[in-house]
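Narrative summary of target 7.
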Amino acid sequence: MARPVIGISTYQEPARWGVWEMPAVLLPATYPRLVRAVGGLAVLLPPDDAADAARETVAALDGVVIAGGADVEPARYGRSPDPRTGPPARARDAWELALIGAAIDLRVPLLGICRGMQLLNVALGGTLHQHLDGHTGGTGVFAEHTVTPVRGTVYAAVAPEPAVVPTYHHQAVDRLGSGLTASAHAPDGTVEAVELGGHDSLVLGVQWHPEMGEDTRVMAALVEAAARHRAATTDEVPVP
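Modeled conformation, tokenized:
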């Protein structure tokens, strides 16, 4: 069976390398490296504002990862920006919201990482805390802390015991979006994972950065779900 194809969202930023200085599509190499490590094929998804681009892109994939990055624009969830909220990335917000919507609609497995989890929550009508003061492990710095799964959730089936995870964030889920369940928490109660219940495909978001750690289970769960999706939509037989 061919390896499942996992698309990872990217972002456009000014960049400089060699003699070149121009806008570039960027993504930390740790994302595709982790996808490959757990048996997937990684492809990068540059922003595209064509009307049907997101749906056509997702339809060609077996799974989607919405990567971490800039703060979600507060206007997306009906709030004014806090002074500590970063500048808006409107083109990226629009592209990734379209990818999320297409993945949910087409039943393509989806994993949101950090910003990706927050954007998943916003896509389903939820809101965000724009700044966390005194969050476990540090706020807006690279750190680590323990996350504890909620029994009976999909995430708990993937990682049934508390785990120490690598983190970098200063925002978090406030009101949960429609259909989402909190499936892990930090010691201070911050929502650390969410999932879409009653859905026939994996839709999971995690607040931390699995691509920066050694625990591959979350990405492996996405790739396994992507393999099942591929088998269900082709004549291939999934590998046990």
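The two ends are 11 Å apart (CA to CA).
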